Amino acid sequence: MSRERLEKLAAEGMERLFEKVPKAREFHAAEWTDPDYYRRHLVETVLRIRLNNEVDAYGLYKVGYKDHRLAATLARYLSEENNHEGMFLRDLKEFGLSKEDVDATRPFPSTEYLIGYMYFSINQEGPLPTTVWNWFVEWYSDRYNPAITKHAAEVYGLEKVKGSQAHIDYDESHDHDELMWSTVDRAIKGWGSLEDAERHLVNFTDLIALYFTELYETTVGSKD
Q1: Left if phi > 0, otherwise alpha if psi is -120 to 50, otherwise beta: which for 23?
Q2: Is residue 161 helix, strand or coil?
Q3: What mean pLDDT value characterizes the chain?
């Protein structure tokens, strides 16, 4: 039942996002895209992957010797996700951006807030926040990324989405949604409560809404 509750909460959070962020619903429904918006979205994906890997390592450190099974699962996920940024860098090259261009780009404030929130909450509460975030990322990816990527392929061409599609295929073949749910379930039992997980999930969806607001305003909105 806890998984059903969190999935329902995640869907409700995304619906709030769609109601208040311009073009977010259409983008996720594969009804709209924009080259500047999509390209910057890929850039932020790379930057967030890099930062998230560091956060996962910190969460793993906070587990320490207290839960070997949770530590092993988090370590496996961190290992499997390591260097996945390269898949998106491949697509960005097709859009005319080099790795050096991405390296020189500062993350959006919303991404900095997200990473800062995770460090603070992990430091205070242990690994539960990072397990909830990673599960939400995989839930989101399963639910929306195939349609977003398919639509981008139709608009921009297959060469510009090969890396993104490879990432989707990898996550599906490694069943990362199930893997990450197992860490949430274990962290709830050993490091917090379902109510704690729900609180973090609401905060995460609010931060993602802030991200998509910034994404729109700095790309499409700046053209108005």
Answers
A1: left
A2: coil
A3: 93
- Asked whether 121 and 193 are in contact (CB, 8 A), the reply is no
- Under 8 Å between Cβ of 28 and 221: no
> Which CATH number goes with the domain that contains 88?
1.20.910.10
- Evaluate whether residue 46 is within a structural domain: yes
* pLDDT of 1 strictly over 60: no
Residue 220 structure tokens: 């499409």
How many separate domains does the chain show? 1
128: Cβ contacts below 8 Å, ≥ 6 apart: 184, 187, 188, 191, 192, 196, 197, 200
Confidence band for 179, pLDDT divided at 50, 70 and 90: confident
Q: Is residue 1 part of a domain?
A: yes
Specify the pTM.
0.94
